[in-house]
Write a structure and sequence with these properties.
The complex is a heterodimer of chains A (about 400) and B (about 400). Chain A has 2 domains: about 110 residues, no CATH class; about 180 residues, MetI-like (MetI-like fold). Chain A is about 70% helix and about 0% strand. Chain A contains 16 helices and no strands. Chain A is globular. The two termini of chain A are about 35 Å apart. Among the domains of chain B are: about 50 residues; about 210 residues, Orthogonal Bundle (MetI-like fold), CATH 1.10.3720.10. In chain B, about 70% of the residues lie in helices and about 5% in strands. In chain B, strands 1-2-3-8 form a 4-stranded antiparallel beta sheet. Chain B has a two-stranded antiparallel ribbon with strand order 4-5. In chain B, strand 2 and strand 3 form a beta hairpin. The longest helix of chain B is centred in the first third of the chain and has 33 residues. The N and C termini of chain B lie far apart (about 70 Å). Classes of the chains: A mainly alpha (about 400), B mainly alpha (about 400).
Chain lengths: ~400, ~400
């Protein structure tokens, strides 16, 4: 009763038949009467909506609210005569980004593939043609060149010194404090009150600070919840479950009103700092759950093997468990970072002038009354861009770290 | 003596090397640090509150609130006590949560299943929707719906009628509704009861059919009777009132859903559904390909494959993460306060502004949202047990 596989059965995948446009449409759009109806209805509604949107954008919409307030959108009420500091900050960040890109891509055959070159071209064309950025294109174009230059340099450096990665991490770490100095002033620079921090600058600053604070906190909470020590486990679980049951607005409200009450009389941290603390405390609980899922996915044998090699608990965690757990948890962790970035919009409710808050105050200006759709669409594009870039980055890291074939 | 001291230092060394000692010591230290921090914060709080002359107490809840609330499910007057105002807020939150969960489940499942459609346009549309909506903050979407979409609807004088039974204007949406609140509640209760009864009848019918290979006719008839009964109650028992446009603008009769409520509901449903769609998609993807192929080769049409074979198996993967999405939706209803919908958080902040009691108000808020989330978790756990894989 042995089963025989005839020779004509091949295990190779079937040939892919490239379809012309008409057979393709027949197969994918009009395969039966129901599909045809669906296609027609959806195409009809969709194109009607698109035509309405485009005709609105080209005729009714009054876009001058965007270029007239572009500085406000980007940096809030930051003093205009101190803009060079913001440009310097942008140059530092872009230079570091280029360098990291070059070092990470040192083993690629070409750094500037066709798609990357197209991307550069589109970015340059956008900066020159987009009315709000056109006045600053003389600064922006050299920054684009800086990215390309540092990327090429980073590739050479990375090839010569393969261990340069940790120095770049250190540079990123230090750049945070340089950014703080450039934005806030002090140490020889004119001080800028935190009331004048705003717009996209404040959004990015709070998001980066929140992410930097919530990651170690979330890691500790996750380890605490998985710990064999009952008191540590109980406290971590209590914290995580309580915070996850409360809305963020309530936590931010507590941050603004109650943090001063919890501290000794007279000490009142800056309200941006209070907001960042509340944001980080909130996100840490969610992040802890994502890391915990990663920890649970590491087979138990890994820990037992490490223990039987004589490693103690901290080294087991640091060298064996966490690297594997974090790799598994990357998509969820980046997802949490994206939602933290989106959650910064809630700071506008507690009175900070971040991107959405500045949008609200511009809309309150009588000369821009009723320009809701224009302003909110513009903000939506900015938020979408950053969130999409983050999820794209997470996918790239995932591919790079994927070791199983 | 020398021998004695040497022995004790040896014991000390042994103790320092003993992992059990460190485990206990670490826990004791953690507990002491946490307790010290908590008592430091609480003593500061106590001192600060006493200095402000507002020692911790909930007695303010019985004082008259003195503010009016735009919409309410129960009778409310401005000189009612604070606790009644908070109940009104809770009622508004609950109506947002209930309608939000129902609509999100529907839209999310449709969008998730649509991403497996053979129709290229449907598939793309689902992907674009998810990619677009998930990457834009909810608060921004809420403002967009409230100001740019519902705010751009015409004045009541030129309101839009939908087949003469519903009306849209920039004050809200008007839909047909039962003539009294009691009847509406009865209708909702009847619907929920019918769904539960139908679920059990269906389970029994499947069980009988699996065991005997035939039969289950009584249950089929029962289901049909149940359906007819429900339709009869909904159509004839509700005493529907249809909104009617009034000369010169405005609407009479029916139910007015305020612009704040509709905008919050739309934003919440569209945002949460994108996440639900991804969960549904992942769940369906987790069903092995062999199940599709086996069902197809038995001759089942594509729709039945999804409905009878794939989706029931996917439910096991889908339900646990759905719990956290429902909880997110519940917590996110607090954002409706940004467009002045008087839900729980909004009433609580007004209470805080008038009484200057942040701690008590925060405790009330926390307790409310925690118990709502707990309630959802309980229901979802029950549901999860029902769909678990039963090995035979």
């Amino acid at each position: 009763m042995t089963s025989v596989t005839p020779d004509s059965f091949s295990s190779a995948p079937p040939d892919v038949v490239a379809l012309g446009p008409v057979p393709w449409a027949k197969k994918n759009l009009f395969s039966d009467w129901f599909n045809s109806l669906l296609t027609l209805v959806i195409a009809g509604i969709f194109s009607w909506g698109m035509i309405r949107l485009v005709s609105w954008a080209l005729t009714t919409a009054q876009w001058e609210v965007i270029p007239n307030n572009f500085g406000l959108f980007m940096t809030g009420t930051f003093p205009i005569n101190l803009y060079p500091r913001i440009w310097a900050l942008l140059a530092i960040v872009c230079g570091l980004a280029g360098l990291s890109w070059g070092v990470l891509g040192r083993n690629l055959s070409t750094l500037f593939s066709r798609n990357v070159l197209i991307g550069f071209g589109v970015a340059c064309a956008f900066m020159v043609l987009f009315p709000p950025t056109r006045p600053s294109s003389l600064i922006l174009l050299p920054i684009v060149a800086l990215v390309a230059g540092t990327a090429a340099a980073g590739r050479q450096i990375g090839r010569k010194f393969p261990g340069v990665g940790k120095w770049i991490s250190l540079a990123w770490f230090l750049s945070y404090f340089v950014a703080l100095w450039l934005i806030g002033g002090g140490l020889g620079l004119t001080k800028v009150s935190t009331n004048d921090w705003g717009g996209l600058l404040l959004t990015l600053f709070t998001a980066v600070s929140g992410i930097a604070l919530c990651f170690p906190l979330g890691l500790l909470l996750a380890l605490g919840r998985r710990s064999a020590l009952p008191i540590v486990r109980g406290l971590s679980t209590l914290y995580i479950e309580i915070v996850r049951g409360v809305p963020l607005v309530a936590v931010l409200f507590m941050g603004q009103v109650m943090i001063p009450l919890f501290l000794p009389l007279g000490s009142r941290p800056d309200r941006i700092l209070r907001a960042i603390i509340a944001l980080a405390l909130f996100s840490a609980a969610y992040l802890a759950e994502n890391v915990r899922a990663g920890l649970q996915a590491v087979p138990r044998g890994q820990q037992e093997a490490a223990m039987s090699l004589g490693l103690n608990t901290p080294t087991t965690l640091g060298l064996i468990i966490l690297p594997q757990a974090l790799k598994i948890a990357i998509p969820a962790i980046v997802g949490q970072f994206i939602s933290l970035f989106q959650d910064t919009t809630l700071l506008s409710i507690v009175g900070l002038a971040e991107l959405l808050g500045i949008g609200k105050s511009i809309l309150a200006n009588p000369s821009y009354l009723g320009r809701y759709a224009e302003v909110y669409l513009f903000l939506a594009v900015i938020y979408w861009f950053f969130c999409y870039a983050m999820s794209l980055g997470s996918r790239k890291i995932e591919e790079k770290l994927n070791t199983d074939n | 003596m020398a021998h004695d001291s040497g022995g004790s230092s040896f014991e000390l060394k042994a103790m320092l090397r003993d992992e059990r000692f460190w485990k206990i010591a670490f826990q004791v230290i953690t507990l002491i640090v946490v307790l010290a921090l908590v008592s430091f914060f609480l003593s500061n709080l106590n001192r600060n509150l006493i200095q402000q002359g507002r020692a911790f107490s909930f007695s303010f809840l019985t004082n008259p609130a003195g503010f009016s609330i735009g919409e309410s499910l129960i009778q409310y007057r401005p000189n009612d006590p604070y606790w009644r105002a908070l109940i009104v807020g809770l009622g508004n939150t609950l109506s947002l949560v209930a309608s939000g969960i129902a609509l999100t489940t529907f839209l999310g499942v449709v969008a998730g299943v649509a991403s497996f459609s053979k129709n290229w346009l449907v598939h793309k549309l689902s992907r674009i929707y998810v990619g677009l909506v998930r990457n834009i903050p909810l608060l921004l979407q809420l403002f967009f719906w409230y100001f740019a979409i519902y705010g751009a609807l015409p004045q009541p004088e030129n309101q839009i009628g939908v087949f003469g039974i519903a009306f849209l204007n920039n004050r809200g949406v008007y839909i047909p509704w039962a003539s009294s609140a009691v009847l509406a509640l009865l209708g909702i209760a009847a619907t929920i009861g019918a769904v539960i009864a139908a679920f059990y009848l269906w389970q029994q019918r499947t069980k009988i059919r699996v065991e005997t290979g035939t039969g289950g006719k009584t249950q089929t008839i029962g289901l049909a009777v149940l359906g007819l009964l429900w339709i009869a109650i909904i159509v004839f028992g509700m005493n529907w009132t249809i909104p009617a446009g009034v000369e010169g603008g405005g609407v009479e009769g029916g139910l007015r859903l305020s612009r704040e409520f509709v905008a919050s509901l739309t934003a919440l449903v569209f945002y949460t559904s994108a996440f639900v769609a991804e969960i549904v998609r992942a769940g369906i993807q987790s069903v092995s390909k062999g199940q599709w192929e086996a069902a197809r080769s038995l001759g089942l049409p594509a729709g039945s494959v999804m409905q009878l074979v794939v989706f029931p198996q996917a439910l096991r993967v889908i339900i646990p993460p759905m719990n956290s999405e429902y909880m997110n939706l519940t917590k996110n209803t607090s954002l409706a306060f940004a467009v002045a919908f008087p839900e729980m958080y909004s009433v609580a902040t007004t209470t805080y502004n008038q009484t200057g009691r942040p701690v008590e108000v925060f405790v009330v808020l926390m307790a409310t949202y925690l118990s709502l989330c707990l309630l959802i978790t309980l229901v979802m756990n029950q549901l999860n047990q029902n769909v678990q894989f039963k090995e035979r």
